[in-house]
Design brief:
By secondary structure, the chain is mainly α. The chain has two domains: about 1-80, no CATH class; about 85-200, no CATH class. It has helices spanning about 5-20, 20-30, 45-50, 60-65, 70-80, 85-95, 100-110, 115-125, 130-145, 150-165, 170-185, 190-195.
Amino acid sequence: MSDDLEVRAAAILTQLRGEGDPNVRAELGTRYGIHTDQAVGITMASMKAMAKPLRPNHGLALALWTSELYEARTITAHIDDPQLVDVDQMNDWCSDFDNWALVDPVCFTLFGTAPAAWSMLEPWANSGGEFTKRAGFALLWAPALHDKNAADHHFEKALAMIGANAGDPRHLVGKAQTMALRAIVHKRPVLLPREHGAQP
């Protein structure tokens, strides 16, 4: 990591800690179900505003991720360049996921448009880990909503995986499956009846 990146990352972390609101932090778990010890209390709107002038910056995103701070890691989803995100980074970051509010923006905003996105779907969705499994289905949202050129077979395979994992009792996993299913059906409604053997 260059000295410049270290300085910029340190400045952002100092800003986050300086602007952290104990009241916002206290509500993360009780109001939103975001359970993490690594947070200072910054609203999502403020994090997005901080990220806007920083993007795109792959190196800075990598530097901020190492801080382990929830808010800094959330910002990385909005400043990293998805075209520079590789499989190793996706697996490394996925192994660090510890709450749904980090999984969702990283997968929807960043990983969902990375070149390796489709290759990560199956191993993550079939994982036993709660946040890894959620990431697998959260990874579907971005291409389902925005990738008009993706082949139908990708989504047909995804629908089969949703069906195979539909019995998972964990709320965070089930919610991600529901959101992915809704996104696919909304954009490609013909696929659902085909999946169930009905005529469109």
